Write a sequence for this structure.
């Protein structure tokens, strides 16, 4: 039996993205916000919160805003809400204040 390779996008697994449209199609994964060290975290070798890339989290949160003209992530309202909840969880676990856009969405 052939070994199945784990799908990645930019060397990141789907767990590194706030939106995963189709788990088997990396083209549907949006809003990366973890460092590559997430792979170690998924193996249990590192706390996943230590893999959060805060500059990417801020960019991902901004991409959820309807006011972000031309740069809003193409996603359904359900995906937007799910991503906002996910990103807000990182802010809370990191003891950081929620950006206004996340506070408005969650």
């Amino acid at each position: 039996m052939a070994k199945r390779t784990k799908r990645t996008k930019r060397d990141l697994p789907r767990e590194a993205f706030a939106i995963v449209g189709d788990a088997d199609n990396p083209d549907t994964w949006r809003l990366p916000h973890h460092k590559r060290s997430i792979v170690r975290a998924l193996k249990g070798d590192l706390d996943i919160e230590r893999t959060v890339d805060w500059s990417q989290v801020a960019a991902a949160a901004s991409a959820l805003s309807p006011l972000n003209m031309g740069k809003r992530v193409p996603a359904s309202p359900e995906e937007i809400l799910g991503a906002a909840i996910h990103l807000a969880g990182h802010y809370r676990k990191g003891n950081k204040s929620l950006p206004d856009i996340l506070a408005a969405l969650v």
User: Anything to note?
Assistant: Helices lie at 38-42, 54-63, 77-93, 100-105. Residues 14-105 form one domain.
